[in-house]
Amino acid sequence: QVQLVESGGGLVQAGGSLRISCAVSGRTFSTYAMGWFRQAPGKSREFVGGTTWSGTNTNYADSVKGRFTISRDNAKNTLALQMNSLKPEDTAVYYCAARPGLYIRFVSEREDEYDYWGQGTQVTVSS
Question: What one-character-per-residue DSSP string does 18-82 give?
Answer without folding.
Answer: EEEEEEE-STTGGGEEEEEEEE-TTS--EEEEEE-TTSS-EEE-TTTTTTEEEEEETTTTEEEEE
